[in-house]
Write a structure and sequence with these properties.
Elements: H1 20-25, H2 32-35, H3 39-65, H4 73-84, H5 91-103, H6 118-122, H7 140-143, H8 146-153, H9 157-170, H10 172-191, H11 215-220, H12 227-232, H13 248-258, H14 270-274
Helix pairs in contact: 3-4, 3-5, 3-10, 9-10
Length: 300
């Protein structure tokens, strides 16, 4: 596969009027000029950034999109609610389109390939009318749960509840910095995996897409930056394949496994670590099928 550009379809255009609230929210934190900002507001912003990043990476991504561990029905809803507090649309929308991305990664059908443009992969596709609605056929295993369908139909309920609680408890400066600013930064940190993680970084494994590994992005997103690893073997709960590849989401999941909240964390098989390694390909006789180990089945 070449890394040449792909053309977007006519219907893949940003709906600018519908996108006004998204862009306007980027300006809202500037109102803190009038309210003042306390140290506690910045601490709150950091806490909310990291906590919600965990729910996105562990919940939306590793659980709902890839089913790399198990949760009971209560914790399944809790992880979905926590992830939706990030204001990144509903659980079925996010995880369903992510499965679609893996099925067609960097092909013409991919909803957010950077081969269609960096801006498009980073945020443009989210603001497009074509991809506004959830597609339950992409995620039938979780769409069968009525509480998840309800949550998906009300994507703004969790962030609204969080925002109101912060406003009532911490006041306007906590709302502007602790909630709004951290939400905007969280958006773009998450979006870097769709954009930057397919443009910058190192390639360890030969895959059918442009995925790359990046320590910087892994630190920013609690482990999601090991993106080439993940595209090589999607079924593992751990994306940092080696001890030196920092994967904070996996460390938290291991702790939750110890206390009984998370079960059956799927490991990285030893064979997946060596099969398809580009730098070992010339002199490693163990490499026999170096493209896409363990792809996510269409039915999952």
């Amino acid at each position: 596969m070449t890394e040449s550009s792909l053309s977007r379809l006519p219907e893949e255009r940003v709906h600018w009027l519908r996108s006004v609230p998204f862009f306007a929210l980027h300006l809202v934190p500037l109102a803190a000029i009038f309210t003042g900002v306390a140290l506690g507001d910045w601490i709150l912003a950091l806490v909310l950034f990291w906590v919600r990043m965990f729910f996105i990476t562990a919940g939306y991504h590793r659980y709902f999109a890839h089913r790399t561990f198990k949760l009971n029905r209560f914790w399944q809803f809790a992880f979905a609610f926590g992830a939706q507090s990030s204001a990144q649309k509903g659980v079925l929308w996010w995880s369903g389109f992510h499965r679609h991305h893996h099925r067609y990664s960097d092909m013409a059908e991919d909803v957010h390939s950077p081969r269609k443009g960096f801006w498009w992969s980073h945020v443009g596709w989210i603001l497009c009318r074509k991809y506004h609605a959830s597609r339950h056929e992409l995620i039938p295993d979780f769409a069968k749960f009525p509480e998840l369908r309800w949550l998906d139909r009300n994507p703004l309920l969790p962030p609204a509840m969080l925002a109101i609680a912060i406003l009532l408890i911490g006041g306007w400066s906590a709302f502007l910095i602790g909630f709004v600013l951290s939400t905007v930064v969280l958006w773009h940190a998450t979006f870097t995996i769709n954009s930057l993680a397919h443009v910058f970084g190192r390639v360890r494994y030969r895959t059918t897409d442009t995925s790359r590994n990046s320590l910087i992005l892994a630190l920013l997103t609690l482990g999601e930056g090991w993106h080439n690893n993940h595209h090589h073997f999607q079924a593992a709960a751990r994306q940092g394949f080696y001890w030196w590849e920092i994967d904070v989401t996996f460390y938290v999941l291991k702790f939750l496994d110890l206390i009984g909240i998370v079960k059956d964390l799927k490991p990285v098989p030893p064979r997946a670590r060596i099969t398809g390694r580009i730098k070992d390909e010339a002199n490693n006789p163990a490499i026999t099928d170096p493209v896409h180990v363990g792809p996510l089945p269409d039915s999952v």
